[in-house]
Batch of 2 targets.
Target 1
Amino acid sequence: MGEAIISRRGGGGKVIKGLIITPSTVNQAIPKGVHDGTGYVKGDANLVAGNIRHGVNVFGVIGTLKERFKSISGYESKHLSIGPGDIETFTITLPLTPMFIFFYPTTGTNLPDMSTFSKIFQLSYGNEVGAKYGVWSKSGFYTDPALTDAKNVTDGNLVYSIIDVSGNVVTYRIQNTSTSGYTTTTDWNFNYFAFGL
């Protein structure tokens, strides 16, 4: 027994002290050498079935979490001056991570009754999405052409678009495509219905 220990150390094995391994998405090689016994693999109290999506296996823990979609409707108003050729971009932070956003613009004090969203949304299923209604959908989430083709909303010379969604932050653009005319100063309202996680 003593000879075996001497042989291991005599072979030039490096003594490794306090090695701490943090689990990740890939296998991690354990360094070759003699470990002093103070190292460990990190644990996490959050590694429980209720925190893992249903059916997903993480280190032998099978998830039981069944996520439920949430929905929200509202509007964001910006007081802007928009003239020929102008482009205005602004962001909206939603209280959820959207998978689907149904939106339409209004101006001035013409704010929507949020109960009308359900009526407008029902029209979309009859392929009757009007020019003043638009839709953003996370890639692959919703594929009905009646909605997915309505990403830009055109109202006269103005084009309204959702140009980016990162997490719960929505980037929205208003573009005046006219090459001449007057500058309009008013409240530009982004009205939306969204659902997600």
Target 2
Amino acid sequence: MIENRRRFNKQEYSERAKKTRQAMSEKGVELLIVTDPSNINWLTGYDAWSFYVHQCVVIGSDNTLFWFGRIIDAAGAAMTTDLSAENIIEYPDNYVQSEQEHPMEYLAEILTEKSLSHCKIGLEKDNYYFSARAAESLYRGLPNAEFVDVHGLVNWQRAVKSSQELVYMQRAGQVVEKIYERVMAVAQPGMRKNELVAEILHAGTLGTAEHFGDYPAIVPLIGVGEESAACHLTWDGGTIPANSGICMELTGVHARYHSPCSRTLFFGKPTQEYLDMEKMILESINIPVASGETEYTRFGMKDMLEKKSVDVLMPDLQRIGGLSEFRKSAALASAYHVPISTHIFTEQSLSIAGSAANCISVEHVDWFSPLYNESIQIGDGYAMMPEGAGLGFSFNQDFIRDHLVKN
């Protein structure tokens, strides 16, 4: 692997293979043919746009682990994985899109040469990169093997993210913030949808000053007006009309890790029918909805409470108008028998949360922790109330001084 392409250290890849082999053992699988591109990448680091031809990673209960793919993609495997040359196995181009022969026939020959033709072999049968013809080729080429469906086996090993994966996801979150910042800056009635998408794609690829934006697994999905009622529509050259809603499904990506985010914009003043949809949504799902972080003052909260469009009211300390307005909003929600939760700014809002009988939770991220001398104490899912004077947290003047923006 060339170092500028390294995303994880060798130890992490080794642990991933170990976890996968343990899961294989529990299902009695001796050999696993991994065809999902994301699983291939997770197991080995292989990172190239080559999934349109047949490729896979083969992992065995012993030390077997090799990449198998088209001959022109072998160099990419050498550059993005730690696999040795003998574990990068290529098939010739005459197998590509051939009606006479199939790459999985070639793989069957390789497995036979490696004395792996009598194994219990797991296949990702519901993976859309693994065709019916691919399966049939393996069945014919390995008549003595027992094939079982283990779709999702590797995916479940990926469920608990490592610390480095979380870093990449956080960076992807910063990228999607940049995307929506650009949307808010340029989107307007009369703009063509393809022009807006061009801005989205540019912002997503540009990323942040520190971290590049990677290609997404999904194109920007955008529905305008009545199109918003349909899922997964892409753009065309039509213009965005005034007094209309626009629904977007976008994602920020860094090092293949995604941070998707759906948002709805409305150009002009929403009609009452449009506003009443909030209540309809709440009535249509059985998951409690927390909202209110983008509303201003208790009067914005009152509108949501009167429409019964929220299960949990979530005032944002900055937008709501400070501590006093937050406290009034909590009391107002109590009159409607609606609980509240805080929206970030935990250090500043924790005392209010603790004094409001209808506050059921606090939202906490540690973005602002360096600003304070004291730390929030959290244990077993509970935040301990501060005991100091005032709000219980004092500013770290040294940190603030070191991070002042100076002209």
